[in-house]
Amino acid sequence: MSGDGGAARTEAAEDLVGVPDGFERLWTPHRMAYVQGERPSPDAGRGCPFCDAPGKDDADGLIVHRGEHCYVVLNLFPYNPGHLLVCPYRHVPLYVDLTPEETAEFTALTKAALRALETSSGPGGFNIGMNQGDVAGAGVAAHLHQHIVPRWGGDMNFLPVVGQTKALPMLLEDVRRQVVQAWPEDPC
Q1: Does the residue 121 lie in any domain?
Q2: Residue 46 domain boundaries
Q3: Which of 67, 134, 157, 174 is buried most, with the most CB atoms less than 10 Å from its CB?
Q4: 69 in active site
Q5: In this structure, are residues 142 and 44 in contact, taking their beta carbons and an 8 Å threshold?
Q6: Does the pLDDT value for residue 5 go beyond 80?
């Protein structure tokens, strides 16, 4: 309210840019694509990110390692730096759909990814898991993928819980380079 009993005065937002207000801001505009639902289609060959990635060079596809039946890729929308996905090349939705050869390599690549992350970033622990089906929380339910999320003490604080924002201290290309350099020669 103005001091003369008149109407409330509104300040223009552009007049407040750069004015200290006691808040620290973390800008993550790259997350808007995910928040607004601009996610790839899960149809094989038509925008499935896990079918498309192997057709790109490793850096552009965020691929860390290629096997014969499966590959390892950085998550484009990571929970933590080093959030990896193990994917079969075949477009199958369920773990039980893997062949014995795919299953063996899927497991071996999971172990190798854990070793690479331990070497490259020394996390205190890991979350490993698969969400199969839309109702289970799979972002791309039509193509099986397993998450490997490195965890550190204090990495889950008020920011993601209250603010639905995750601060990631490293760029994807830097994380990819570190994991590739740490990838074990013998994955088993």
Answers
A1: yes
A2: 25-182
A3: 67
A4: no
A5: yes
A6: no
Q: How far apart are CA 76 and CA 34, in angstroms?
A: 10
Cβ proximity of 116 and 178 under 8 Å: no
User: For the segment 74-132, what is each residue's pLDDT rounded down to a tens digit?
Assistant: 998 888 889 999 999 999 999 999 999 999 999 999 999 999 999 999 999 999 999 99
How many domains in the chain? 1
Tokens 């773990």 locate to: 95
| Model pLDDT, residue 137 | 83
CATH number at residue 46: 3.30.428.10
What ranges in the chain are assigned the alpha helix state H?
Answer: 32-35, 49-52, 58-61, 100-121, 158-162, 172-182
Kind of pairing between the strands at 146-151 and 70-74:
unpaired
**Which one-letter amino acid corresponds to residue 184?**
P
Catalytic residue among 65, 143, 145, 147: 145
Q: Let me know if residue 87 belongs to a domain.
A: yes
| 137 or 162: which leads in pLDDT | 137
Sign of the Cα torsion 123, 151, 145, 58 reads: negative
